[in-house]
Amino acid sequence: MTCQPLNILLVEDNDDHVFLARKAIAQEMGERVQVFHVNDGESAIDFLRRRGEHREAPRPDLILLDLQLPGRDGFWVIRTIKGDPDLQVIPIVLFTSSDASSDIRRGYECGANIYVCKPTGPDEFADRIRAIPAFWSRVAHLPPAKN
Question: Phi first, then psi: what are they for 75, rounded to 5°?
């Protein structure tokens, strides 16, 4: 089965998680994926709306979003994206440490496409993060870009 190339926006403030995610995604997808990173909610929206230092940012095919971010949290980011007609079709994967049922429910209510809990071990973390772009590039149909 062929893989679609992907642009992924990783919204994560933990440098260790960013490092592990980039490494695991590169191992799984190679050059078929580009991972762009911001570390807070405001920067995520600036990236998506191509504002400030992100004027040349590509439109991501997929967003990997942590809930616990400095400043605006992941719930705010999801609501902002899903409330914007130009952005609302971009799939959002909540990839977060919280396994609280209230967070899971709220994540889906806000519009997340998938809620994935981060495992604590680095090997399990890598396995789980590798599966996300593999699914979205090999199995799922991503929304086409607007003309």
Answer: -60, -40
Q: Which listed CATH number (3.30.70.20, 3.40.50.620, 3.40.50.1110, 3.40.50.2300) goes with 6-138?
A: 3.40.50.2300
pLDDT tens track for 107-144: 999 999 999 999 989 899 999 999 999 898 889 888 88
Q: In this structure, how many other beta carbons lie within 10 angstroms of the beta carbon of residue 102? A: 8
**Greatest C-alpha distance within the chain:** 43
- CA proximity to 40, closest of 91, 74, 17: 74
Q: Concatenate the DSSP letters of all residues of 30-44 into one string.
A: GGGEEEEEESSHHHH
Span 102-116, pLDDT tens digits: 999 999 999 999 999
Task: Delimit the domains of the chain by residue range.
Answer: 6-138
Can you list the alpha helix ranges (DSSP code H) found in 41-121?
41-48, 74-82, 101-110
- Residue 117 pairs in a beta bridge with 96
